[in-house]
Design a protein that fits this description.
The protein has one domain: Rossmann fold (3-Layer(aba) Sandwich). 23% of the residues lie in helices and 21% in strands. The structure holds guanosine-5'-diphosphate and magnesium ion (MG).
Length: 214
């Protein structure tokens, strides 16, 4: 009886956030950077068995691959807990996406501009499910820098979908991405799946990142 009344305790809201993107886009790195609990990882060394399955071309020094998923947790203030679930990027694990997406508040799609088309399936998927998402361009040291608007056009994003730059290794950067997502959801943006733009033309500056998503 002498214990604190339950209504004195901080109200915790727990939300599930998905971290998506192609193989090598930085999902495991992002969850590892931000998680306040030791992230659950299911990394295995890349071996010859994955030749032809996991495309390592253009991926910096990648020696492991996530076999199933990443999981981590971050608390904002005393009130909001985000559980982060990394979706396995490889096509062969797409059967897990529906299960993992169940009950999710929203998603972060990590994009590597050197392999932009790798995130097309994620964008298509969340648009179809009408699940709010933000696109975070992971700024790899060796990757070319593009105007984010150019990437937006190539991805044919609906106008309300936030597109931000990030460094998946940096806590502050990852935190900002998550805050952008949560704020956009609260404001009713972050992409509800209604794509108003029609088929993208080409990048505005004339540099072609990749064939646009259609
Ligand atoms: N330079 C740089 N390297 C990164 C960044 N994010 C991830 N990496 C590296 O890129 C490789 C692939 O990242 P990983 O998190 O395993 O990608 P995943 O397949 O999406 O889980 C790893 O070797 C990371 O150390 C980043 O923001 N900058
Ligand atoms: Mg991984």
């Amino acid at each position: 009886m002498g214990s604190a009344r339950s209504d004195d305790r901080p109200v915790l809201a727990a939300h599930k956030i998905l971290i998506a993107g192609g193989f090598g886009s930085g999902k495991t790195t992002l969850v590892g950077a931000i998680s306040e609990v030791r992230p659950l990882r299911t990394e295995e060394m890349l071996t010859t068995a994955s030749v032809g399955l996991d495309d390592v071309s253009g991926v910096d020094g990648k020696t492991t691959t996530t076999v199933a998923l990443d999981f981590g947790r971050i608390t904002f203030g005393a009130r909001v807990v985000l559980y982060l679930f990394g979706l396995p990027g490889q096509e062969r694990f797409s059967f897990m996406w529906d299960e993992l997406s169940y009950g999710a508040l929203g998603a972060v799609i990590l994009a590597d501009v050197r392999r932009l088309s790798d995130c097309f399936p994620s964008v298509d998927y969340f648009e179809r499910r009408r699940l709010p998402f933000v696109v975070a361009i992971n700024c790899f040291d060796s990757a070319p820098r593009y105007d984010p608007e150019e990437v937006r056009v190539a991805l044919d994003l609906a106008p309300g979908v936030p597109l931000v730059l990030c460094d998946a290794r940096q806590v502050a950067s990852v935190k900002q991405v998550l805050i952008t997502l949560v704020e956009a959801i609260a404001a009713g943006h972050a992409g509800d799946g209604s794509r108003t733009a029609t088929t993208a033309t080409t990048a505005t500056t004339g540099r072609t990142i990749v064939a646009p998503r259609t």
